[in-house]
Amino acid sequence: MAKFIRLEGVVFNNNTLPVLVDLAELVSQIPSLHSWVNAEASNYSYQNGDLVLQDLVNPSAQYEKASGRTTGPSVVENILNGRAVIRFAGDGNVVGGLKKNTDDMPNGANTKLTLAVVALVTAPDTSIQNIMCSGSNNNDGVAIFATGINMTHSIGLNGGNVSFENNKTWKILIGSIDDTTVKSLSPSDLASVNTNTASSSNLLATTYLGQSSATSSKFVGDIAEAFVFSDDLLAAGNETHLANLIDYLKTKFSM
After folding, report:
1. Alpha carbon distance 128, 234 (integer Å)
2. Which residues of 169-200 are buried (b: 16+ CB within 10 A; e: fewer)?
3. For residue 168, with 0-12 CB atoms within 10 Å meaning exposed, 13-18 middle and 19 or more buried, which class applies?
């Protein structure tokens, strides 16, 4: 007679599926990876009631409540594929976002830079909602932002904006600059690239999540993961790095 052993709670790995820890390792090996934050328990803390995010690339750096704001974001558990997110409720006044405490963003003319976020804008608004920025959107930096009742997501560099897509849904937003060229990767197919041109003369070394350097800047929504790369991942030659980043995000968040 056959004998069976029942193993409660054991899940056998499907070798045809990517393993998240392996994909994360591939992302960590991208040479241009400059900054990486998320809401996993080991990567954040609260100091005096304010959220602090650890930069996974540079452990000595962290993202803290931006100056001039009374209240910052918080971490909310079990939101996207069972994972925690960073929740922002910026009001353009006392409620703000986070600023990296080390000003190390690549900046100046001829800069190559990629911003990548998994984000959801929850409040329709005709004003600019800054999701991830260097400096102030359309003025002295580069930013991924959203505007309008239908939430048009864009990446902008000193007036040269390139749109992603509309609507209030979770999106993988990947945009880049290469000197004066601004690019956005379509979230629908994660393959099509739109381009525009602008001036890169005033890029700053600051990094913000959920606002910009502007006093009236705000973001109402959630960020699950955010990256900065010191290269244009949408350029020829970086296809493997871009694919590894996308595979990691799609696997982690079931997108």
Report:
1. 25
2. ebbbbbbbbbebbbbbbebeebeeebebebeb
3. middle
Structure-token pair, residue 253: 């968040």
Alpha helices in the chain (DSSP H): 20-28, 239-253
Query: Distances from the Cα of 186 to the Cαs of 138, 190, 253, in angstroms?
Result: 21, 5, 18
According to DSSP, residue 244 is labeled H
98: amino acid identity, one letter: L
Burial of residue 218 (number of CB atoms within 10 Å: 0-12, 13-18, 19+)? buried
SS3 108: coil
pTM of the model: 0.91
Q: CA separation (Å) from 77 to 7, 26, 41, 54, 86?
A: 29, 26, 10, 17, 9
| Tens digit of each residue's pLDDT (9 = 90 or more) over 117-126 | 999 999 877 7
